[in-house]
Design goal:
Shape: globular
Number of domains: 1
CATH class: Mainly Alpha
Cofactor: Mg(2+)
Organism: Pseudacidovorax intermedius
Order of helices and strands: HHHHEEHHHHHHHHHHHHH
Number of helices: 17
Strand order of the largest sheet: 1-2
Distance between the termini: 21 Å
Largest sheet: 2 strands, antiparallel
InterPro entries: Isoprenoid_synthase_dom_sf, Polyprenyl_synt, Polyprenyl_synt_CS
Family: Belongs to the FPP/GGPP synthase family.
Structural class: mainly alpha
Strand content: under 5%
CATH topology: Farnesyl Diphosphate Synthase
GO biological process, one term: isoprenoid biosynthetic process
């Protein structure tokens, strides 16, 4: 990761000061860097000994960072990772345009791999992520959304870049197609579990720990799994309260909605859904060689369910 950070720092170099300032602001905020970590771990698990995985790990981090910049503008978010979002600090226009810069810089860096399959995977992932963003926008305030439609959004919007990261590692390593698919399955399942747990934290987390405002999903009209399950398993009165709050984005009812989510067992049911995805990720690792890197990925999937931030 030290080498990945070196690549990131070098490729953020530009003659436009505001681009560097905004880019470094959001990247320096930290974050879990899970996508580049997965690419590095999977590459080494498969025996890759080159250096291109450092470049591609930086590419996926740039793509992820670009989506964060655009997301925060669309969602009108004010807090990320415990500090003001880039759009709050620099304005919407700067955030959108610097997000565009990071996307285009990522595509420049992809060329270094000199591999059309690498380009194909990243181009497709970027397109699917954009589709997921639009799909989520269309679903805002839609209280009729079911679990399947919810999963479609998060597998496009969040899990796709996890999947691309682990698939890229297999491509770099020259893995056969069946092993590549197992690697991709691990990434997709882990990314899905990650987002499902993230949605739990919007109703069970602490703003000081999560680094975002509790109830943001409700304010934005996002029908996440805790709300979907609360409406499904709650009484008619409880379902009506959640439905109204979701359709109007009325955060004044947040304490009551949180109480309903907890009383109906929706949080436990959502965590169980995340556990099933984590188990799917762990099962996919059976196809990989047994070494410290694959063991690390197994531990990562197991520990994901315990995250509080």
């Amino acid at each position: 990761m030290t080498e990945v950070d070196r690549v990131i720092d070098a490729r953020l170099s530009t003659g436009v000061p505001l681009v560097s300032e905004v880019s470094r602001y959001i990247i320096a905020a930290g974050g879990k860097r899970l996508r580049p970590v997965l690419l590095l771990l999977m590459s080494r698990a498969l025996g890759y000994e080159g250096t291109q995985h450092f470049n591609l790990a930086a590419v996926v981090e740039f793509i992820h960072t670009a989506t964060l910049l655009h997301d925060d503008v669309v969602d009108e978010s004010t807090l990320r990772r415990g500090r003001p979002t880039a759009n709050e600090s620099f304005g919407n226009a700067a955030s959108v345009l610097v997000g565009d810069f990071l996307y285009s810089r990522a595509f420049q860096m992809m060329l270094d791999a000199q591999d059309m399959r690498v380009m194909d995977v990243l181009a497709e992932a970027t397109n699917v992520i954009a589709e997921g963003e639009v799909l989520q926008l269309m679903n805002m305030g839609d209280a009729s959304l079911d679990e399947q439609a919810y999963l479609q959004v998060i597998r496009s919007k969040t899990a796709k870049l996890f999947e691309a990261s682990t698939r890229l590692a297999a491509i770099l390593s020259g893995a056969p197609r069946d092993l590549e698919e197992a690697c991709a399955t691990y990434g997709q399942a882990l990314g899905t579990a990650f987002q499902v747990v993230d949605d739990v934290l919007d109703y069970a987390g602490d703003a000081a720990e999560t680094g975002k405002n509790v109830g943001d999903d409700l304010r934005e009209g996002k029908a996440t799994l805790p709300l979907i399950l609360a409406m499904k398993h709650g009484s008619a009165t409880q379902a009506a309260i959640v439905r109204t709050a979701l359709e109007t984005g009325d955060v004044s009812q947040l304490p009551q909605v949180v109480q309903i989510v907890r009383e109906t067992g929706a949080l436990e049911a959502t965590r169980a859904a995340a556990a099933r995805e984590a188990e799917r990720a762990i099962s996919a690792l059976d196809a990989l060689p047994a070494n410290i890197y694959s063991k690390g990925m197994l531990q990562l999937a197991a520990q994901l369910l315990e995250r509080r931030t």
